Amino acid sequence: MELQTVQIAVFLALTALIGGVTYWYCRGQRVGETGEQEYFLAGGSLKWYFVAGSITLTNLSTDQLVGMNGNQMALLAWWELAAVIGLIMLCFIFIPVYYKYNCTTTTELLEKRYNNPHIRALISVLFLLGNIFIFLPAVLYGGSLFMQTMFGIDVNLYIIAAIFAVVGSAYAIFGGLRAVAVSDTFSGVLLLALAITVTLIALNAIKWDFTGIPQERLTMIGADDSDIPWKTLFTGMIFIQMFYWSTNQTITQRAMASPNVKEAQKGVIAAALIRLLIVPPIIVLPGIVSYKLYGDIGDAAYGRIVGDLLPAFLSGAFAAAIAAAVLTTFNSILNASAALWVCDIHETYFNKTPNVKRLSFWVSISMVILAFMMIPIYNNPEQSIINTMQQLYGLLSMPILSAFVVGLLFKNVDARSMIIAVIIGVVFYFFATAPMAESQNINLHYIHLMAMTLILSVLSALVINRVIFGKRPIWDADNVFGTKQ
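Request: output the structure for the sequence above.
Response:
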């Protein structure tokens, strides 16, 4: 399909409008912009609707729209339905704790619970590795592939990715969290409206008739050899959602930037309702329709649907919405990563009083370059983006979550025992999912393995704490979660 002038005009106009409105809203609201509270937590000023909008669009990007639709099956909706549980945990369990301990980063909570800065730094490094080598390159790849497929343009994917990287970095570096959250919200309204439109137009294209589509593409009960076996919903899936929504700095940073707990909780509840009612259909139905129309075309499915079925002016608008989603997810992860480096590592080991904005600039540039170099990993026609991301991130997510579980439930745990346990968890998951494991018929689904990794890490920490360091863990959840004064 040739690139049409009207598509380009609509795309550029809406992209400029979002940027202009964000600048207009944020101008004059920056106070003490070299401080970490302002730069990373928007000075604690985010209203509930910006919390909801930013959480929604930080997560909802091309890895969901392109990656989940790329599976071309209903089963992937479980990722979004299960996410509601993670958001409820964030709302009622974790947010009060983060505010109680006055945290700038989620990992700051670990330092305060273990009374040790090194556990905080270790977990931050793991978060950073995941952001730089998994999430950032996946977002760049998915967005670039969508643009390439939808417009049918003969432009190198890496050129498109470079443009996304430069523009997304500008938001994060020069605007801080306030600009990121505001642009997220305005972009989110546009994206959700157009994604719903795409879904309805796609369904109308097959006259709402799903005959001819294999049953395994329509079922919500996954077989043992499927992407999401139904048994995993009761094991690793729960822990994945707890980790992502409740401890991941990129998500929780928005909820931690409200004036108070109640305002943050309202935003998270709104995000959960959006996740429950709107997101599941838009991340699976267009992909299923594309299977009936085009066959098994993988991650190209969503871009093909949008490019073929939407009229020119709407496809241009949708391109702007997708571009906004890519940029906001990218700059959200970048801003959160800069916060982890500055607050958890640089201030601890290098300089306690850095110029936050200047340091964040150079840290962000370095991260973008590294992420760009990792894009080829995702250019894999045999596996969708979302499955690649989840399987890779299991290496880090469950060991990280184990540090939060032990730290929040117990006191009198030596930080060194937790550090050793985290390393044990990383090593276990690596060998359990390595090619050598498959050759020895160790073929447990990676989501089951993630649950096993979490349990192993938690038990290792408690045993090492007792046996090696001679400390008896003391149950402290009642005090942490406020059920006992």
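The CA atoms of residues 89 and 246 lie 7 Å apart.
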